[in-house]
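Translate sequence into structure tokens.
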Amino acid sequence: WIDHDCFEMILRLGARNILDVRWVGKWKKLKDPKDPSKFIWGIRMRMTQRGFKDELAGKLKTYSGTSSRTSQRIVVSECTCRRWKMATLDVKKAFLKGVTYQELSDLTGEKLREVNFEITEEVAKILRKFKGFEKFDRRTHVLKNKKPGTGTQDAPRCFGIKLKRAT
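Result follows.
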């Protein structure tokens, strides 16, 4: 989140639309740090904003680049029948690479959205180790999204806009 410049620290006083976060764990097959030719199982954790708590979630224009199982099967069937080659692409941290809320507003003419989030004290201890966040105090500060974070309703749309501009 920090590497992708997704948020900034602001005062809690006057902040609106404050979401909380949850950590989602997933078992992953990882390269063994002792022997890169071997794999080990480990848990990868990611922070996800609880976007269903967004005050404006029901009024947002949403777009998801994913398709239904039926649509996927039709595409695979057509490619098989026509002997077309298929490829997939996984973009790591895709939703953190989308356009900013400012860019979204400029591109669409929509009102600039304010989405903030709060973190637990355990996460705040880690955050304070990063430059610019040394004085973060969760009692007086929240984190303001510059870009929609993982879990927010507009993250897929903002990534789709960025992808379209790049391709």
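Note: The chain has a mean pLDDT of 88.
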